[in-house]
């Protein structure tokens, strides 16, 4: 890395040593933009730090010493960064040739958007729509609670958070860009105060995008910035993962919504879990609703250290 870095890439690692190494390798092999790579290790127990330092001596590996979660981990990495742009990148991604370069070029030519995301594919080449989402609303939560969003999956009307059948194949402004692939200038990041550390895992990018829009930014998807996303590797069970997702949504409702909409939204979240409880994943979500419905920080201890809390008999 002999040229001054134009981009700081921040990856948060938690017990995903090999996939993180693969993500770093593909990033370096497919990107021409001068960059620095910062990996924040959240107290991994799988020798991630030694593996990454041995394999990539130019990568800045920060040992957090404990599992800080995504928001705090990202903030720690960005605080160490020096480049004028910051890219958040998941450890379970593979950068395709020119993807990051395309994202940077678009941002430089269209600075008025302020927040930039790309297009993600699954390993089999099909679309992974999770690079962006629509924002939660009373209507979207009603559709979730009544099952309309499941019956009419990818419907722009009845599953509005999915953004309909749009294949992420055109430049388009969106409400939420996920932390899987998120580009922003360092100055804008600092103005927004980084990620909100009320969040532990899931929901922080929705909150960040909401605050960015409120500050005048226009989150946009750049389809030429295409990566492969394997979708998750650091949460154990699908039930617990969905509980963490619900905790993130509950936290967003509690932080950003006013009463009575906040109360209605939380009730609709629980109603959606009740409706789906015949499925093993949702059975766990419903059973553990007391653990996630108060949001973070309560949900972190309740879901990740269940012995410290009562998880049954929720009312």
From TrEMBL:
Superkingdom per UniProt: Bacteria
Protein known as: Glycosyltransferase family 2 protein
Entry's Gene Ontology molecular function annotations: transferase activity
Glycosyltransferase 2-like domain segment(s): 8-130
Keywords, sorted A to Z: Transferase
Lineage of the organism: Bacteria, Bacillati, Actinomycetota, Actinomycetes, Micrococcales
Statement: the UniProt record of this protein carries the keyword Transferase: yes
PANTHER family: RHAMNOSYLTRANSFERASE WBBL
Keyword Metal-binding: no
InterPro entries: Galactosyl_T_C (IPR027791), Glyco_trans_2-like (IPR001173), Nucleotide-diphossugar_trans (IPR029044)
Residue ranges occupied by any Galactosyltransferase C-terminal domain in the UniProt entry: 176-220
């Amino acid at each position: 890395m002999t040229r001054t870095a134009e981009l700081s890439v921040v990856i948060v690692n938690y017990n995903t040593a090999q996939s993180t190494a693969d993500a770093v390798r593909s990033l370096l092999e497919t990107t021409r933009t001068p960059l620095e790579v910062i990996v924040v290790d959240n107290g991994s127990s799988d020798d991630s730090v030694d593996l990454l330092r041995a394999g990539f001596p130019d990568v800045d590996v920060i040992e957090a010493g404990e599992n800080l979660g995504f928001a705090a981990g990202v903030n720690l990495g960005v605080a160490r960064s020096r480049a004028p742009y910051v890219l958040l990148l998941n450890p379970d991604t593979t950068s395709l040739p020119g993807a990051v370069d395309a994202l940077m070029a678009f941002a430089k030519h269209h600075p008025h958007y302020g927040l930039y995301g790309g297009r993600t594919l699954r390993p089999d080449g099909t679309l992974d729509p999770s690079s962006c989402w629509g924002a939660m609303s009373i209507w979207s939560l009603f559709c979730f609670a009544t099952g309309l969003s499941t019956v009419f999956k990818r419907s722009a009307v009845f599953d509005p958070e999915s953004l309909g059948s749009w294949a992420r194949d055109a430049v388009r402004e969106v409400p939420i860009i996920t932390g899987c692939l998120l580009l922003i200038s360092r100055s804008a990041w600092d103005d927004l105060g980084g990620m909100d550390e009320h969040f532990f895992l899931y929901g922080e990018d929705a909150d960040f995008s909401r605050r960015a829009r409120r500050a005048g930014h226009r989150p946009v998807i750049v389809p030429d910035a295409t990566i492969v996303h394997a979708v998750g590797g650091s949460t154990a069970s699908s039930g617990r993962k969905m509980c963490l997702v619900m905790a993130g949504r509950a936290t967003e409702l509690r932080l950003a919504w006013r009463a009575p909409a906040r109360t209605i939204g939380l009730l609709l979240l629980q109603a959606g879990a009740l409706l789906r409880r015949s499925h093993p994943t949702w059975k766990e979500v419903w059973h553990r609703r007391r653990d996630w419905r108060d949001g973070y920080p309560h949900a972190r201890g309740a879901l990740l250290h269940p012995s410290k809390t009562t998880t049954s008999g929720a009312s």
